[in-house]
Automatic annotation (TrEMBL):
It comes from Exaiptasia diaphana (Tropical sea anemone). Residues 1-97 form the PB1 domain. This is PB1 domain-containing protein. Residues 124-138 have a biased composition (Low complexity). SUPFAM superfamilies: CAD & PB1 domains (SSF54277). Pfam families: PB1. InterPro entries: PB1-like, PB1_dom. Residues 116-146 are annotated as: Disordered.
């Protein structure tokens, strides 16, 4: 009979001190959320993150993803387990549910109601528009024009340069990258 090593999950809240919690490998996602709710009673926790072997943050939202996290943790530490060494805790970072107001910091809206002329799917050709050639240096290299306009005018033109973006808060992580 092979005994499964005990698993210690370290819950690191945004504010406050970390809490270590010893669990069995068959724990459910709901159990983890309930434990996190005891550590962070003021927020609504809907998921949590952990760091994989590449130090990428992975979000866990289901039992299946939780079991994948646990199996990956034991696989990464299999040599320590075989040598009988104590394992470091599996660190998780709770993620509070965000209100739509907090997600939409620019106050953007999408009009989904059809207008009388929107039934036609063909796009009309623009009239009286002048296309400006890109500005270049003496060597012919394109230069980015600095614009200190407000967010409304930038978004209305549909062109945003990297120097016009401020990273205020990380909203999430995923396979496609980080959402700020």
């Amino acid at each position: 009979m092979t005994l499964s090593p005990s698993l210690v999950i370290r819950i690191i809240p945004d504010h406050g001190s970390a809490v270590d919690w010893t669990v069995q490998p068959g724990i459910s996602f709901r159990d983890v959320l309930e434990a996190v709710a005891q550590v962070m009673p003021s927020g609504t926790i809907t998921s949590f993150d952990y760091e994989d072997e590449d130090k990428d943050r992975i979000t866990v939202r289901s039992d299946e993803e939780l079991q994948t996290m646990i199996h990956g943790f034991f696989w990464l530490n299999s040599e320590k387990i075989n040598q009988g060494c104590a394992l470091e805790p599996l660190v998780i970072y709770p993620r509070a549910g965000r209100s739509s107001r907090k997600r939409n910091i620019c106050g953007l809206t999408v009009n989904t109601r059809p207008t009388p002329g929107s039934i036609n799917t063909a796009m009309p050709a623009p009239t009286n528009t002048t296309i400006q050639p890109p500005q270049t240096t003496a060597s012919g290299v394109p230069t980015a024009k600095k614009d200190t306009s407000n967010i409304s005018s930038i978004l209305s033109r549909g062109q945003v340069n990297p120097d016009q973006i401020q990273h205020l808060e990380i909203l999430g992580y995923g396979n496609g990258g980080t959402v700020y």
